[in-house]
Design goal:
This protein is mainly α and 176 residues long. The chain is built from seven helices and four strands, in the order βαβαβαβαααα. Helices cover 41% and strands 8% of the residues.
Length: 176
């Protein structure tokens, strides 16, 4: 959710796929559109997120009385009552790029803080795979008929298969 406008990224958006790879379930998946604006009533009655991920490339952590959450104040949903609103802050968080695995890792940590050690291990394993694939040298990948995108997919697959899929997400209304 973009808490200042109550906007959300739905099916078809890159971040929807990233959320799935991070082990989350998009709480607005039933809306069948890649971006939507929600009313407070829709968030309270229909969407009911367990976790709110605020994607800000240069964002700071949530603080008490955070103005970014003002439009969500008073809603009786798990994300608010359990203080499960988390900023995903990465310089390229809004751009499809080879840094997406790091953003997916941040999402996974926000959704599954109890699995932090396993997520770190899976991410480290993915980084080792990338090192072996010479990602720092795109010309080497090119000669091998590979692309950084294909290697990036390997990283997200390792993250997904390694730890994040058990339990099918955050349960209930899911993440948003």
């Amino acid at each position: 959710i973009d808490p200042t406008t109550l906007g959300a990224l739905g099916p078809g958006a890159t971040h929807d796929e990233m959320l799935r790879l991070a082990g989350g379930i998009n709480a607005v998946a039933d809306f069948k559109t890649d971006y939507l604006k929600l009313t407070r009533s829709q968030v309270q009655v229909t969407v009911r997120p367990d976790v709110v991920l605020i994607i800000e490339p240069a964002g700071r952590a949530i603080v008490d009385n955070d103005p970014r959450l003002r439009s969500l104040e008073g809603l009786d949903v798990n994300a608010i009552t359990r203080k499960r609103c988390v900023v995903i802050s990465h310089a390229q968080a809004m751009l499809p790029s080879t840094s997406l695995p790091e953003v997916i890792k941040q999402m996974a940590m926000a959704i599954h803080p109890d699995r932090a050690e396993a997520i770190d291990k899976a991410y480290a394993m993915a980084e080792q795979l990338l090192d072996r694939a010479d990602v720092d040298h795109p010309e080497t990948l090119e000669k091998q008929g590979k692309s950084a995108t294909a290697t990036n997919n390997t990283t997200t697959a390792v993250l997904n298969a390694g730890v994040i899929t058990s339990g099918g997400g955050v349960g209930g209304g899911g993440g948003l």
